[in-house]
Amino acid sequence: MNRNPHSAPPEDFPSGGNRRRRFDGPANPQGFIDRLETACVASWAGKPVPERQWLVPDLIPLRNVTLLTGDGGLGKTLLALQLQASAALGAPWLGRECRRVKTLGVYCEDEEDELQRRMTDIAAAYGAALGDLEHVDIAGRVGEDNTLLIFGRPGEGADATPFYHAILRRARELGAELIVLDSLYDFFLGNENARTEVHRFGGLLRALALATGAAVVVCGHPSRAGMQEGSGLSGSTAWNAVVRSRLYLTRPAAEEGAVVDPDARVLSTKKANYGPIAGDIPITWQGGVFVADGAQGADMVDRLDRANHARDVLLAAVDQFNAQGRPTIATRGQGNYLPTRVIRDGLAQGLKKWELEREMAVLFERGELAIGTVGHYGNRNARRGIIRPNPPP
């Protein structure tokens, strides 16, 4: 019985009600009982074995819940935003292959302006423009009621809230196969030490994953004890039980007499039900994103270097063309289209046209390039073209 007048009907929250069948018998005088659905293993004979589906192999499974924890200020939100961008673009995440899917992120600790700033840096690091991230949907929910589950008195169970159903509905509308929830205690207002409440909340998150087929990634903060013992948990050990994968973000341990790089982090696998423990992934903050150290991060570093190189080439070309009285435009198909002219005049320095186009879009988004007046025609009408609004002195 739903005893909370403010909650919505638990449409996809696990219950026995949607599996009731009528059948009569002496042990069932009322005519209704929850039916236990089973599968005979012999019926699987000759059928292909379903392949396990991953968002990030061995780290983040689809149709399941992954818990990402770490102390405040280490960069969990940035990692989650990078994961959304990687999934939307089909680009590696921390040097690991990432499946290309549509994504939804609900962020309760940052306003939309801050999320936009971060995503702009992430897009640039991936050699993309914000316009390329059409499969990244984000909700900034600072200061709002983000509770997903309301608990009644002991023995009365719990009810999914309307906000849970709003997330479920939006994920289905988008076809999202990655759902990020940041951070845990904005969504869970129960007792973190109560195993039954933790299990119910974990069941709700798993129901969300199953209803959408998505990987649900939840960011959370460990307790002081969890950090000291290295578990990365807070509250009941049931948190470890209710998720299929668990990742923990920390700073690297300092060796005696050594100075730790303030931009260095370590992402550790604490639980992996469906794959091997991937161990520690050393990463470093660089240019607004986290990059995997060593060979695994080489591809990202190369993209960052090429994006910065493309920026320098484009800005120098705009200065040169405008000084020559040869303004350029940002419209494809024209002879004075900036990337085309850069290549035609031999100024590309090994960059591809698509790299120049992507970086040009980033520069327009950042306000480093704009359309403005570049001199005048003989009849004194303004001559329009690409300019640098704030050129160097």
From TrEMBL:
Residues 1-28 are annotated as: Disordered. It comes from the Bacteria. Pfam families: AAA_25 (PF13481). This is RecA-family ATPase. It comes from Nitrospirillum iridis. The lineage of its organism: Bacteria, Pseudomonadati, Pseudomonadota, Alphaproteobacteria, Rhodospirillales.
